[in-house]
Amino acid sequence: MPDDQPLPSPLLDRLHALLGPRGLLTDPADLEPHLSDWRNLYRGSTPCVVRPGTVAELAEAVRLCAAAGTPLVPQGGNTSMVGGATPDEGGRQVVVSLARLNRVRDIDPLDMTMTAEAGVVLKAAQDAAAAAGCLFPLSLGAEGTATVGGVLSTNAGGNTTVRYGNARELMLGLEVVLPDGQVWNGLRRLRKDNTGYALRHLFVGAEGTLGFITAAVLRLFPRPRETEVALCAVRDEDAALGLFRRFRDRDEGAVRAFEYMSGEGVGFYARHIEGGTVPLPGHDHYVLVDLASSRPEAGLRALIEAVLEEALEAGEVLDATIGESEAQRHAIWRIREEHPEAQKREGASVKNDVSVPVSKVPELIRRASEACRHLIPGVRPVPFGHLGDGNIHMNLEQPVGMDPAAFLARSHDIMETVNEVVRDLGGSFSAEHGIGRLKTDMMEGWRGGAELELMRRIKAAVDPQGLMNPGKVLP
Ligand code: FAD
Ligand code: 2HG
Ligand code: ZN
Fold this sequence. Notes:
flavoprotein; Vanillyl_alc_oxidase_C-sub2; binds zinc ion; 20% strand; FAD; 17 helices; alpha+beta; single chain; globular; 8-stranded antiparallel beta sheet; Alpha-Beta Plaits; binds (2R)-2-hydroxypentanedioic acid; 19 strands; Uridine Diphospho-n-acetylenolpyruvylglucosamine Reductase, domain 3; FAD-linked_Oxase-like_C
């Protein structure tokens, strides 16, 4: 079928017969929430949204679309930061929402596993694990909307990677609907299973370009019995890293999250978020440290106080507050979690989700900030994020008073400027959000040659018609 033709009506009729009105949306008002991304970078169009209620329905819908040569865009919670779940502007790409595949199929507290369908919202997965006396540790600001299928397809990281790893490390098995409609049941819950190529890992981080994840076996952990959360004002970026090292050296296993925030970012939080009070205002650099242990009487309070005291004496920490209740711990976390929203409300921003070796984080923040200030006078660097993983969101906010569109027109230059520093420090241009549509043009420069060629061969072998999420990941 030529590229510019809309969806053929026989296909639409067949999809309708298969899925019924709940499973096939065509009303423009119903399509609307599926057409643009959280950052409003892209706005596409689609002839319909397919919302299967079972894996068998999805498999049949995929078979029908494959026979008609119709491209498909998997969508979970649509919180992608890189336009990964948005259809293009051509009007032919059918959005497939996994939202109705939302059952937790099984929890086994002895095996410490949960089998959850792709459309289970991350927060619901956490709650289901907690109800069974366990912990599902993946945690990120969008957890009230992001889905199991989405976090696996992007290999999301988030706040607890430093302790529990990325989504990939939390996955033991997968169920996938392949681009021709076959269902692959790889829902094994084994810790050891060396049986040829580890196919399940192909689909994690593939951003929907190889098939649909429909369910996953996830690893669970013991629930923490003790937690401590502190907000610390630190002298500079080196002091932030120094504090991380102090905690790690004392008890590496206790650190559940270690997050950096700039004074500018914390200021945006105070300005834009309802009830956004900051316990230690007026500093240039902050760290949030979260300790957790499932051991009884782990002594985390003594640990956090001892380390902070040492760091205060060394002049690395300027001031600190430790949460005394669940409400206070939550309030400290909120300062960090609301950073993306506060930044959005402040104006136009360019995001750089990058990683470097942990030891290079201070240099990354300093050099990238300086280079961007040189590029665009008045630009406001707002670096924040997962210092413990070497993953900093090296974001830039528009200069005060500048036309947002004029600022965004410089996005490419800004990203190039940051990436030059990242490359020099041995880092990656894409840490946890993925490539999506936003970064495809960077793939050649960063992963060109044998690596990209191998990715193309894999794509061609698994999805020979090129129907799965076209225009994403691969240039
Ligand atoms: P979508 O946005 O719907 O999709 C993401 C990608 O996966 C798309 O390419 C889509 O086609 C594909 N996809 C979705 N479901 C499936 C499926 N079942 N099978 C195959 N492909 C599929 N990311 C982090 O890593 N760490 C963070 O701390 C973090 N914080 C965030 C905070 C906010 C406020 C927001 C808006 C986003 C944040 N993200 C973060 C980015 C985002 O990647 C995650 O929210 C999450 O991984 C996306 O899940 P989703 O269900 O919304 O997926
Ligand atoms: C976070 O860590 C997310 O909060 C979003 O990864 C980062 O807004 C961003 O740039
Ligand atoms: Zn992040």
